[in-house]
Amino acid sequence: PVLHFDDVSSIPFLQDISGVEFYQLRSRLRAIDGDLFAATCAAVPGYEAYNRAYLGLGAPEFLHAASVETACEIGLACGHGDAFERLRRVASDAGGMTIHPYMGSEPSWALAMALTQAAGVPVRCVAPPVAVTDYANHKGHVTRAAEALLDDGVLGGHPVVATRSATTPEGLADGLRELARSHRKLALKMTRCASAMGNGLFDGASVLKASHGELLAEVEAFLRAKEWVVGDEVLVMSWEDAWSSPSTQLWIPALQDGQPVVEGVFEQLLVGEEQVFLGSIPSGLGELWDDRLGVASQRIARLYQHLGYRGRCSFDFIIAGDNAHLVECNGRWGGTSSPMHLVERVCGSERPPYRARDVVSDSLAGVPFSEILRRLDGHLYDVRTGAGTFLLYNVGCLAEHGKLDVVAFGEDQAAVTVELEERLPGLLGL
User: Fold this and answer.
1) Which of 23, 108, 244, 258 is 20 to 30 A distant from 81 in Cα terms?
2) Cα 81 from chain centroid?
3) What is the dihedral of CA 65, 80, 3, 111, to 10 degrees?
């Protein structure tokens, strides 16, 4: 049996995302017959029946784990009380267990070790070891890996944007002033944050006009807001005007099991000046760009594989002019790979045109999931017939935050956009 859970507690500032403590129900998308999926939040009435009947996702067991500290710490919760005893019995009866977590953070490996000791059977973890997980998700390390492994021809130009790094406020101020001489926009980036949560934007002209004291004060204010640990590396990077922000989705097998596989190239839907992730669509960039991005991703993924990386991984890029630049690695499952995997499960490997995004409205807060199903009756994709437009997931946020995630299908991306942006709001009564 396989235990799936989405513990995001090791990623800084995700608590700033509305309803993130309920994202853990995304682990249901990976679970099949005989598996378990765990969460500290309660099951959503009607959601499991929807997954089984409409999407054909099998009948895994839901494990409700009582929170020990915060709701996001699911690995910790699974290691205590009735939840741990249930897992111990399942592992013992089956002669072993596999844990397939959101990412290879310390709670995932600690739970695997605790179950191994308690059940007396092997419990493996489909994820990189903690140190390798930390390495892959560190923006400074992936930047240096790209500079070492990708020559200027792979992505059409230099593999990363202009970058400096420092471990002191003074060094960061100096880096900003240096890059401001040749770049209009700049950013400070914390190395371990996700979804733009660790970014701070600076205007190049303003940086050059500021006195040393004024600029240093701005840098120090940014570091305080991001709870910087003295001595940690922070990046200074040029902020380019990009016309696309693609992402490659990879599966990295154990070293002896073959090469890393690029399972898809996607264009991310980003909003706001700091480019916060909203959703994704399969790439329409064309074969040349898809191939370039795939080759670059595989080279770095091969390095990770030799370090002991195993499991889901993605790389984010920007394309500015004729050049692509690597921005970061996400060494975990995420907002693009989860719906990609869901679409593959219900439609097969030949994914139809689709788009995934979150839908948020105060008017949906408190609306039962059964009511959402009623409003979309006749428009929900049904694996039994192969007909329908919308897939629903990540519905744990609905009751408190009026938020759920939706995949829309269509003949092409233009039709998908119409379905998701124009038709869906009307059906939901927004």
Assistant:
1) 23
2) 29
3) 140
234 within 8 A of 167, measured Cβ to Cβ: yes
Average pLDDT, the chain: 94
Q: In what order do the strands lie in the sheet with 36-39?
A: 61-64, 36-39, 2-5, 97-101, 123-125
Structure tokens at 46: 């009607």
Record the tokens describing residue 148, joined without a space: 């070492």
Amino acid at 400: E
In three-state secondary structure terms, 393 is strand
CA 25 from chain center: how many Å? 14
Q: Cβ atoms within 10 A of the Cβ of 336, count?
A: 25
What pLDDT score does 151 carry? Answer: 84
- C-alpha 28/C-alpha 394 separation (Å) is 9
Reported as a pLDDT band with limits 50, 70 and 90, residue 321 is very high
Measured CA angle at 188 (ends 187, 191), to 5 deg: 125
Task: Give me the half-sphere count of Cα atoms (radius 13 Å) on the Cβ side of residue 221.
Answer: 9
36 sits in which H/E element: strand 36-39
Structure confidence by residue, pLDDT tens digits, 116-127 = 999 999 999 999
* Closest listed residue to residue 304, CA positions, set 314, 289, 317, 294: 314
- Residue pair 35/1 in contact (Cβ under 8 Å)? The answer is yes
